[in-house]
Amino acid sequence: MTDLLDGVRDHYRATGLTERLKTALKTFGPEELRLTPPQLATLDQFHTRGLAATTELGRLAGITADMSVLDVGSGIGGPARFLAATYGCQVTGVDLSEPFVDAARYLTERTGQSELVSFDTASALELPFDDGHFDLVLLQHVAMNISDRTRLYREIRRVLKSGGKFATFDVVLKSGDPHYPVPWARTPATSFLLTAAATREVIEPAGFRALAWQDDSDSANAWFAQLRASGPPPSPNLGVVMGPDFVQLTANLARNLTEGRLGILTAVFEAASSRT
Ligand SMILES: C[S@@+](CC[C@H](N)C(=O)[O-])C[C@H]1O[C@@H](n2cnc3c(N)ncnc32)[C@H](O)[C@@H]1O
């Protein structure tokens, strides 16, 4: 298990990330200038369809200001900051990658949201929270890095209140082997994809009932087609976070989606009253 997590940590190692971000963000003005979450969206929404996907997931999950939200695998914190700014809810993020957590905290200071949004380094398989702590758990483009899905979804159920919600937006296996490298794994060694049906078969027995279930592969394909048509990527972008090969990693994801090897799943579940 530790070996698998180390492989994933290596992939998201991002040495010197906060310093690189400081340099990249000079394009918006001096360090003391407050930034807004949408300004950072080309850089901090580390998943297919960027800000549009986070907006849709927040709407589907029915977020309200009084909710306490946990973002599992929070990356550099874009979804957490955007949802807190949009709904006024408290958001906690956890991520395996220390440089990502450090960067997430820095960016949250830059948007002036440190009172509502916080981040900790932790594994999704061992969440550092009491049972029944959160109203909503989000999981965006993280499950494909996790081999022990039974433990992942049970851990999410454990930290949710009964009747709380779990909203997931992830890459799923469709047909055939994916082309690597992809944004979450440079080789198959750290990629643990399941089909949409197999994902549901693990989530529901962990103590969940489906409220929404969508195949978003077509909108993902349309988004990638629009990106290609609009020329060079906007700056700053996720290349600052993942390095210069990010263009190739993203192109492979787009190819896997177009060829029907991979798909995109959006789903929202309600936590059942008794846990398994
Ligand atoms: C593709 S990024 C998505 C980040 C964020 N959810 C977003 O959409 O912007 C995947 C993230 O999952 C994190 N991750 C992968 N495996 C994890 C685990 N076992 N526990 C916690 N975080 C994990 C990685 O460190 C990385 O930040």
**Uncertain ranges:** none
Strand content: 15-25%
Mean pLDDT: 96
Q: Rg to the nearest angstrom?
A: 17 Å
Query: Quick one: how many beta strands?
Result: 7
Order of helices and strands: HHHHEHEHEEHEHEHHHE
**Ions, cofactors and other bound molecules:** S-adenosylmethionine
Order the strands across the largest sheet as they lie in space.
3-2-1-4-5-7-6
Biggest beta sheet summary: 7 strands, mixed
Shape field: globular
- What is the CA-CA span between the terminal residues? 22 Å
User: Number of helical runs?
Assistant: 11
In helices, the fraction of residues equals 25-40%
The helix/strand class is alpha/beta
Give an account of the 3D structure.
The protein is of the alpha/beta class. The chain has 11 helices and 7 strands. The longest helix has 13 residues. The site of S-adenosylmethionine has 25 residues, from helix 1 and helix 5.
Short description:
Helix content is 38%, strand content 20%. With 276 residues, it is α/β, with parallel strands linked by helices. It has a seven-stranded mixed β-sheet with strand order 3-2-1-4-5-7-6.
Primary descriptors:
single chain; 276 residues; alpha/beta; 7-stranded mixed sheet; 11 helices; 7 strands; binds S-adenosylmethionine
